[in-house]
Amino acid sequence: MLTDIEIAQQSKKEKITAIAAKLSIPEDDLELYGNYKAKIDNGLLRKLADKPDGKLVLVTAINPTPAGEGKTTTTIGLADGLNKLHKNAVVALREPSLGPVFGVKGGAAGGGYSQVVPMEDINLHFTGDFHAIGAANNLLAAMIDNHIQQGNSLNIDPKRITWRRAVDMNDRQLRNIVDGLGNRTDGTPRQDGFDITVASEVMAILCLASDINDLKKRLGDIVIGYTYENKPVTARELKAQGAMAVLLKDAIKPNLVQTLEGTPALVHGGPFANIAHGCNSLIATRMAMKLGDYAITEAGFGADLGAEKFLDIKCRIGNLKPDAVVVVATIRALKHHGGAKKEDLNKEDLECLAKGMPNLLRHVENITKVYKLPCVVAINAFPTDTAKELQYVEDECKKLGANVALSEVWAKGGEGGIRLAEEVIRLCETENDFSYSYTDDMSIYDKLCAVATKVYHADGVDLIGNAPKQLKQLEELGYSRLPVCMAKTQYSFSDDQTKLGAPDNFRISVRNLKVSAGAGFIVALTGEIMTMPGLPKVPAAEKIDIDENGIITGLF
Q1: CB atoms within 10 A of CB 537
Q2: Which residues partner with 227 through β-bridges?
Q3: What angle separates helix 350-365 from helix 387-398, to the nearest 10 degrees?
Q4: What are 208-237's pLDDT values in tens digits?
Q5: Quick check: pTM over 0.90?
Q6: First to last CA, the chain
Q7: I want to staple 65 with a disulfide (CB 3.0 to 4.6 A). Which of 148, 336, 469, 473 is the partner?
Q8: Helix or strand or coil: residue 259?
């Protein structure tokens, strides 16, 4: 059996100019990065302003498990399936972070015969967007410390600086550091730390900005810390936003690539959904909706994280209204949620499947009852799935009014996604009453409780540590109308990753609240979630190599 990278390397790619031609993108609006990658000038959106939007389809999933769900694979296969049905579909995906690529999770280019290519480039440096985001983040950090060193006219309290440095790698050693050591001219010693680049507010800003002017305004709104008098200090006061925007002038442009079957794909931006808002850029999504009759996008991790943030944050800020939602699951992953051991996942086990089904059903119920959107469950097929198991999932989903479509896109590409595509087309023709899980005028605490009780099905929210004091300060500073971005484990509806399935009788503990004023939301850190991951005992990096001909191996 071929690996993902072998399938991708054997594929015959079309020139990116031919892919652009399928969408009637003028060559003047393309900036080529070799033969198979290009950036699209944002001016194209202005030219398409009067063109009607295509249908917007969100692909999400159950809570992830080691058994895998295949959300990105399904997203790509669905778009290929729509094109098999002669529908003009465009994929809108996030860019992978180098941290997981060399760590444990893997890349984000799909799998099997449902991939975006060139997969090696996409999973590695791609067009340099993440490096630009990291550079802009760290320029601001350098300007903060330089301002303090040069007299500190803004009276910034070094112990209350909230802006951290960033690097796009899993490096636990950098979570907490002391910098500025050495001679007096080497800076002011203080406690500091690094976040992974995908957790940087600069990443969130890039993915929520509507254009370069909006980007610059949002960068200026960043709160970097507080003065000795407890007043917030912004990047605008440091005069940093202009230079930061210059570093991001190319990164803000969406990247055009293709699927293995030549379906156009916009891959742009990449905030994690467990520590950020988990969606590709608003610019790329809007562009996909203008260029295609169907824009197929995804949100990170399970629907409790990615979909919630896509719907409550991205759709709110971007004034988007989805037409349908796909919830991806595998029989194997559902059995894992039901208590099956990893070595037994290939065996028929209706008992464990029944115990794991509530996880899927809760996600479906959230989509249909909380957000009031039409939903289809995509069962990402494995050869070990039995007819009895598949029938059981279908019967249970239909009780909630959600149809089920078997997705065989990993093995068959677009051909294996036709049944799912047909159901998505049907759902997109129905009207829906899309609504958010909370309203703008609710208090910050009530918004936290709304997500916790309606989406996670928790009993409530407990503010611990510094959170009560931070909540009071954020309200006094006038940030109450902002949406909330929950940083939570992806493995469970709760903030305890060991509670699989659909746990009940738990509360969510929020230990830290900070404003991302530029992005336009308040981040709530729950449980033990961290903004800088670490590498596993055996990182994927140990298996990745390149030969004398430039052929990469071990990359999935």
Answers
A1: 5
A2: 156
A3: 30
A4: 999 999 999 999 999 999 999 999 999 999
A5: yes
A6: 13
A7: 336
A8: strand
